[in-house]
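ok, trying the design again with the full structure, not the truncated one.
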């Protein structure tokens, strides 16, 4: 795992690097919902044991596995409370994917909610 720590830039303590890694993790985690929604649609159309459904579910499990390993490494360098607050930005990525992949509409309430979460995350990361 030392090679992965070095690849992620965890050889030195840096709040900016940790924040960036947390955001990359948020993107990875949020992509899981895209694959799960696609798997759900495939399941409805083709059945559970269709190749496409199983492939999408497998990709989803793979995403969660990668996420879990990197998440544990991040927790060695940042307080749990800061890491969890950063996870709030997954909502932003979920909204972005819903527009890009599923042509869903975003309301002003969605934008307000994501903005409040983003501001809170910035405040906590600045404080820490």
């Amino acid at each position: 795992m030392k090679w992965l720590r070095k690849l992620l830039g965890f050889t030195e303590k840096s709040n900016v690097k940790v924040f960036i890694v947390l955001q990359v993790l948020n993107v990875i985690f949020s992509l899981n919902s895209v694959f799960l929604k696609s798997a759900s649609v495939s399941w409805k159309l083709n059945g559970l044991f269709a190749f496409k459904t199983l492939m999408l579910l497998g990709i989803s499990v793979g995403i969660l596995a990668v996420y879990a390993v990197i998440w544990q490494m991040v927790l060695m360098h940042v307080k749990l409370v800061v890491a969890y607050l950063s996870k709030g930005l997954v909502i932003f990525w979920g909204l972005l994917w819903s527009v890009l992949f599923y042509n869903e509409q975003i309301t002003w309430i969605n934008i307000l909610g994501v903005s409040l979460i983003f501001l809170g995350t910035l405040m906590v990361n600045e404080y820490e």
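Keeping the full-length input from now on. The first helix runs from residue 2 to 7.
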